[in-house]
Design a protein that fits this description.
The complex is a heterodimer of chains A (371) and B (532).
Chain A: E1 3-7, H1 13-37, H2 42-50, H3 60-86, H4 94-112, H5 118-147, H6 151-169, E2 200-203, E3 206-209, H7 210-228, H8 230-240, H9 242-247, H10 252-278, H11 289-299, H12 304-325, H13 334-355, E4 356-360
Chain B: E1 7-16, E2 19-29, E3 34-38, H1 45-52, E4 60-65, E5 68-70, H2 75-80, E6 83-86, H3 98-103, H4 116-127, H5 143-156, E7 161-165, H6 173-188, E8 192-197, H7 200-206, E9 209-214, E10 217-223, H8 229-237, E11 255-265, E12 271-281, E13 285-289, H9 296-303, E14 311-316, E15 319-320, H10 326-331, E16 334-338, H11 354-358, H12 373-386, H13 403-416, E17 421-425, H14 433-448, E18 452-456, H15 460-466, E19 469-474, E20 477-483, H16 489-496, H17 521-531
Parallel strand pairs in B: 3-8, 3-9, 6-7, 7-8, 13-18, 13-19, 16-17, 17-18
Antiparallel strand pairs in B: 1-2, 1-4, 4-5, 9-10, 11-12, 11-14, 14-15, 19-20
Classes of the chains: A mainly alpha (371), B alpha/beta (532).
């Protein structure tokens, strides 16, 4: 008996959803086995993780506010990356662009925050972060357009350039270095939470950060932009076949530069949101959203609406594992990273089963008829 | 005792998703014969042969080699059984020499590459009467040389059964003759050969028997000597079909597009088109014949504004279009459609829907920020209806359509824009008889409407029947423009290889320059100035 792989014609939506759900369940089961091996009750752990420690917690609303702080940068970065990916521009530089945006936003907050009203500071922070990140991204696009360099390598390497600039700023005590606390002997980042913080809309005790609303608004705009506008159409054509785009009279280079700039700008905006809620820089400011965002964008198959759902789930994984670590000291928060990897792997496997099915090879056949 | 066949396929079935590519096919190949496998596109010829060469495994059925049942689950198995296939798209490493391309597939290539491999391969190709330089790099080879190399490779591995998938599609008439004499010699040496083709005259010329497939079904096998082209077509298509291509006579206008002393470079910077002059009138089809890669692509791209012109003039209705951006050339009513080998590379965005492909050239004309998909959908519906495109809906991605329908979508969009000059390269590339004739009808209709058509083609028989005049290119130079009803395939073949130059045939009229030209002294003056 032998088997072989056959292509599926079409897969109905409910079936697709089932496959993905199965993949996630399988990933959780694998994670559960690992937890058992460590002597932890998986059900207890998972229930702690997925409720993010909010059940039986007097300040559950605080937990949800903190969860949204994880969600906002990830969702916005993923949306931004999907713009570039749709054009088949492999922007692996989310981390670097995020850091550049964060440094620019912090500069505005530290230099101008005390002399300007909060709202003006925040707007300037967003604009500065978008510009800095946008330029950092479009630099690579310009090199690609002009010299045909490989954007994957360039954006990847520039991540480390940005990271070490940030590390340098956080380490170097000097008169010029306004990023650090002047009064402290050890190098500590200067907080600006009192002069630049995004306002909250109070719903009872729960404070809904303005960033959350803005993120959803940006998501909606990008959804429409990609789907219905001329520029969105151009992105799909260039992504599908640059030769065809050129043939249709599109200015391919302009489109590439414009789209990458926009993509990086939005990552800068995510950084401004992050900095404007954290109120201080740190060398771990990105929370790895530049990397995780790539996974989210692909898991969502570059669909803007799905990106929000997937970001919400992945954020739950990350934030929940931190919350669960409080009661299960044996399992640290890297468990979430492992689980995320297994989920990605199994969702890709599910993808295979959505596209193909496996059938048994039949033997037989009639006598030869020709000749 | 039943006859022992070299290959016997029994009840072979192969499905891809819900598409049945081969349904219960029975085929046999006698020892030492040439069997032609005939069928339209999508009839399952290549799929069937890929199961012999180990690329696909059958869902059901049995394969016998020399009377023994076998399982072929990889190309290695197939090689061991003495079956060799020369694919339509050559499987060669461009940067390797001829000898190394053969050497690398050996079971035991040895740790070090030895010089003697050149001698060994040279001797072996001499034995079969091939003329090939074993040290020559594949990337420097002409198409026919590459094909020869593929055949030598197959023979080197000791194949007794040789399968050739549309070997003549890329060759000139003279090269086809040469190939056929090689095949006959191989047959005499005891090899059994299967040749896939859909050119009937070749089937009649070379084969002993013909097996016919239609839409994945096995139809019949006949002795070539006992049949004729008309009968074969009916089996292949399933109904009577008129094999004549119309050439309506239409009153011609003054030249619409005039090309004068045009020189273009290719991507590598070598001269692709060398001082070429010709003109197209409204109401005529000018064919462009030439061996693949003789500057056809560069010429098309230059006319569409996609490739810079080194020197020369392109005058459209009296205006020079050299240096204009693609958009401006489109707006003048010059349409270019080029069907590359992969059939999707230029002109269409394969992952996008038919609607989205319809609006490709005019999406920017919609007012405001948004794309106008409503009129795009209406256009898509019209093209689907008028050209009988088979598709589930207007929102189906173009790459899901079959080849013929893809090409109809492309041509449909071009015609919808109401061009006055159509440049079309290989519009029937890889299409079956029905779809090809549909495309010829579309072009003839355009011609009757007074459109000037430049038809870059491959099949000389078709060009002789369809075109009014034929221009022959050889290495980027014009070898002459001939009237299609006054020339022959042999003459064209000689011109394509550069053996015959008819540019100076008419002493009173310089080649490629119309008597009633729109090109003025002013144009020529400005062109000269630009060069200096």
């Amino acid at each position: 008996m032998s088997f072989h792989v056959v292509k599926r014609e079409a897969c109905p939506l409910w079936k697709k959803a089932c496959f993905y759900l199965l993949a996630v369940l399988a990933a959780l089961t694998l994670g559960g086995l690992l937890l058992l091996a460590m002597g932890v009750n998986p059900l207890a752990y998972y229930s702690r993780m997925f409720t993010m420690g909010m059940v039986g917690n007097k300040i559950a609303y605080k937990a949800f506010e903190n969860y949204l702080k994880v969600f906002v940068p990830l969702a916005l970065t993923s949306v931004a990356l999907s713009l570039a990916f749709k054009m088949r521009f492999w922007n692996i530089g989310g981390e670097g662009q995020f850091i550049m945006g964060a440094i620019a936003a912090a500069t505005v907050a530290l230099k101008l925050g005390s002399s300007l009203p909060n709202a003006v500071t925040l707007i300037l922070m967003c604009l500065a972060a978008m510009l800095a990140a946008g330029l950092y991204g479009v630099f690579v696009a310009a090199l690609k357009v002009k010299f045909g360099t490989n954007e994957t390598l360039m954006t990847l390497m520039l991540n480390y350039v940005a990271l070490y600039i940030l590390a340098f700023l956080g380490d170097r005590k000097a008169d010029w270095n306004f990023f650090l606390q002047a009064e402290s002997v050890r190098p500590v980042f200067q907080s600006f939470a009192d002069v630049a913080a995004f306002p909250k809309i109070m719903l009872g005790k729960f404070g809904l950060n303005l960033c959350v609303l803005l993120t959803f608004a940006v998501g909606a705009v990008i959804f429409v932009y990609l789907k219905y506008t001329k520029q969105g159409y151009e992105i799909s054509v260039v992504g599908d076949s640059a030769g065809t785009a050129h043939y249709a009279g599109m200015k391919v280079n302009t489109i590439v530069l414009r789209t990458v700039f926009l993509s990086a700008c939005l990552i800068g905006l995510a950084a401004a949101f992050k900095v404007g809620t954290a109120g201080v820089l740190s060398t771990a400011i990105t929370d790895d959203v530049g990397w995780t965002g790539i996974i989210v964008a692909w898991l969502s198959q570059l669909n803007t609406a799905v990106i929000f759902v997937v970001s919400a789930l992945i954020s739950m994984l990350h934030y929940g594992s931190v919350a669960a670590a409080a009661s299960f000291s044996r399992v640290d928060s890297s468990f979430a990273n492992m689980l995320q990897g297994v989920i990605l792997f199994l969702v890709l496997t599910a993808d295979f089963f959505i596209r193909f099915r496996i059938v048994r090879t039949q033997k037989g056949g009639k006598d030869n008829g020709n000749g | 005792m039943p006859e022992q066949y070299a290959i016997e396929m029994r009840g072979i079935t192969k499905t891809f998703g819900s598409v049945v590519a081969n349904n219960n096919i029975n085929l046999n190949l006698r020892q030492g014969e040439i069997l032609a496998l005939l069928g339209e596109n999508g009839s399952g010829k290549t799929t069937l042969m890929n199961m012999l060469s180990g690329i696909y495994a059958p869902d059901a059925g049995q394969i016998l080699v020399d009377g023994q049942p076998v399982t072929i689950s990889s190309p290695e198995d197939s090689k061991r059984l003495g079956i060799g296939m020369v694919h339509q798209h050559f499987k060669l490493v461009d940067v390797f020499s001829a000898a190394d391309n053969i050497w690398m597939g050996r079971e035991k290539p040895g740790f070090a590459l030895k010089r003697q491999r050149y001698d060994e391969i040279e001797q072996m190709s001499k034995k079969f009467g091939f003329d090939i330089d074993p040290k020559k790099k594949v990337r420097n080879m002409a198409v026919s040389e590459k094909q020869t190399l593929e055949i030598i490779k197959v023979l080197y591995y000791g194949a007794k059964v040789i399968i050739l998938d549309e070997p003549t599609a890329v060759l000139t008439v003279q090269e086809i003759e040469k190939l056929f004499s090689v095949l006959r010699r191989m047959k005499e040496a005891g090899h059994s050969i299967i040749i896939i083709t859909h050119k009937l005259n070749e089937v009649m010329d070379i084969s002993d028997r013909v097996a016919i497939l239609r839409k994945g079904e096995y139809i019949t096998t006949v002795n070539t000597a006992e049949t004729n082209e008309q009968e074969l077509t009916e089996w292949m298509v399933g109904r009577k079909i008129d094999l004549n291509i119309d050439r309506p006579v239409v009153e011609k206008t003054r030249p619409l597009l005039e090309i004068r002393d045009l020189t273009i470079k290719n991507d590598e910077g070598a001269t692709a088109i060398d001082k070429v002059s010709f003109y197209i009138r409204g109401g005529e089809i000018l064919g462009v014949a030439g061996i693949a890669g003789c500057g056809q692509k560069e010429l098309c791209e230059a006319i569409a504004g996609l490739r810079p012109v080194q020197s020369g003039l392109m005058i459209h209705k009296g205006d020079n279009i050299v240096g204009l951006p693609p958009k401006a050339i489109l707006e003048k009513g010059i349409s270019m459609s080029f069907i590359p080998e992969d059939r999707l590379g230029m002109g269409l965005a394969p992952s996008l829907s038919i609607t989205d492909n319809m609006i490709l050239k005019n999406y920017a004309d919609a007012r405001g920020l948004f794309v106008d998909r409503k009129s795009g959908r209406a256009d898509a519906l019209r093209v689907i209806e008028e050209l009988e495109v088979v598709t589930p809906s207007t929102e189906t991605p173009v790459r899901r359509l079959s080849g013929g329908n893809v090409q109809k979508v492309l041509l449909g969009r071009e015609i919808k824009a109401g061009p006055n000059v159509i440049v079309t390269a290989y519009p029937v590339r890889g299409l079956d008889i029905n779809s090809s004739y549909a495309i010829y009808d579309i072009l003839n209709q355009q011609k009757k409407d007074g459109v000037g058509i430049l038809f870059v083609g491959e099949d000389l028989d078709v060009m002789l029947a369809l075109c009014d005049k034929i221009m022959v290119l050889c290495h980027g130079r014009v070898m002459g423009v001939v009237h299609a009803h006054k020339t022959s395939k042999e003459e064209l073949g000689l011109m394509m290889t550069g053996a015959l130059d008819l540019t100076d045939k008419h002493e009173d009229k310089p080649a490629g320059i119309a008597r009633d030209t729109n090109i003025t002294a002013e144009h020529l003056e400005s062109a000269r100035e630009e060069e200096n």
